[in-house]
Amino acid sequence: MNQLLAKLASRLVRAGSLSITDADGAVHRFGDGSGEPVHIVIHSRRAERAIAIDPMLAVPESYMEGELDFEQGDVLALLKLSYQNLEGAGAEAFVMKVGEGVRYLFRRLHQFNPAGRSKRNVARHYDLSGELYRIFLDEDMQYSCAYFPEPDTSLEEAQRAKKRHIAAKLALEPGQKVLDIGSGWGGLGLYLARQFDVDLLGVTLSEEQHAVSRKRAKKEKLDGKARFEIADYRALCGPFDRIVSVGMFEHVGINHYRTFFDKCAQLLSDDGVMLLHTIGRTSGPTVTNAFIRKHIFPGGYIPSLSEVIPAIEKSGLLITDIEVLRLHYAETLKNWRERFLANRDKVLEIYDERFARMWEFYLAGSEASFRWQDMVVFQIQLAKKRETLPLTRDYIGETEKRLAAPNGRKTFTDAAE
């Protein structure tokens, strides 16, 4: 076994049970033997060297290329073992993060997302076959964190609960103009148009998502109330009474936060309300995981609150509410990963083995980051005037209850009464 890799594994894995079969067929064991055993097989010396130098990138890439396999355990089990050993580690954690430190120096370059580049980055992920997403998403094609009122809530119901939760925070009234920035496959926009009788504009940079959204609106006979366009938010004109953005801010990039919130402030009416739903981190500023940036979300970045709030403050928008959703995305990703693996044969009918392995690592790695690292979801409610919303948060729960009832419908007027 590569000596640097052996040293790294022995210093990092102190608790748990990790076995590595190296390229020569020799088995090496690390840890105290406790917990769920994980046994990986590395098929080439090239992969050994790469993992020793930059494990955060080389482990998933080696798995993608078939140079790393599992004899026992799986991707999630390996990540759990790694992250739990990293907690409280000193020099060992430093070794794992050397590559990340170098990447930090170039993070603004990696996140440079002018309009043209943003569209290309979006296409890399969201213009994949719609059939791929139908394999593991819920029936409404919600590709963002669900909301689990109870641990045993199904994915379908959790996604419905997410839409109710967001709608309640928007404090909607019939006839309002609503902008959905990053409207996905149209599910949230159609829900708002249907339940609240608002005029909705959803914008996306994905050709695939745009086509599906328009088709859905026409099929549901909502195309008069819900319009979907391919447009960059920076090119829009307002005003809008409400703005919602779910799962899009992760693609903005730190260079463009001031532009994003300045534009939202410009687009929002004086009595307007905005709800931003984004993945965030509880720790300080860092870099995008190398594997995610290179293979899954080019140009993407997960911010800390300390990076977001200054841009909001300078825009003139007021923060009226912040909620942190902790393990909700871990549960969402668990459902996606299990459905993806259960239908892996269907994935292989669309793409190849390398793609299936890449996405398996992406889904497991994302779940692990919410379970054992610092990833959470922020829901940040914004307004221009402090008197726009009620004094307490009671209206949010009341709205959700009415929306959850059969044929439920709730408006802000009802909440204020």
What's a quick, concise take on this entry?
The chain is an alpha/beta fold.
Helices, by number, come to 19
Looking at the structure, what is the overall shape? elongated
Please trace the helix and strand order, writing H or E for each element.
Answer: HEEEHHEHHHHHHEHEHEEHEHHEHHHEHH
SS-based class = alpha/beta
Distance between the termini: 71 Å
Poorly predicted runs: 90-95, 101-112, 410-417
Rounded radius of gyration (Å): 23 Å
The number of strands is: 11
Biggest β-sheet: strands ordered side by side in the sheet: 7-6-5-8-9-11-10
Largest beta-sheet characterization: 7 strands, mixed
Mean pLDDT: 90
Query: Which bin fits the share of residues in helices?
Result: 40-55%
User: Strand portion, in percent?
Assistant: 15-25%
What does this structure look like?
- This protein is of the alpha/beta class and about 425 residues long.
- About 50% of the residues lie in helices and about 20% in strands.
- The protein has 19 helices and eleven strands.
- The chain has helices at about 5-10, 45-55, 55-65, 75-85, 90-105, 105-110, 115-125, 130-135, 155-170, 185-195, 205-220, 255-265, 290-295, 305-315, 330-340, 345-350, 355-370, 395-405, 410-415; strands spanning about 15-20, 25-30, 35-40, 70, 175-180, 200-205, 225-230, 240-245, 270-280, 320-325, 375-385.
- The strands form two sheets. It has a seven-stranded mixed beta sheet with strand order 7-6-5-8-9-11-10, sandwiched between helices. It has a four-stranded mixed beta sheet with strand order 2-1-3-4.
- α4 (about 75-85) packs parallel to α17 (about 355-370), α9 (about 155-170) crosses α18 (about 395-405) and α15 runs antiparallel to α17.
- The longest helix has 20 residues, at about 355-370.
- The protein is elongated, with a radius of gyration of 23 Å.
- Mean pLDDT is about 90; it is low at about 90-95, about 100-110 and about 410-415.
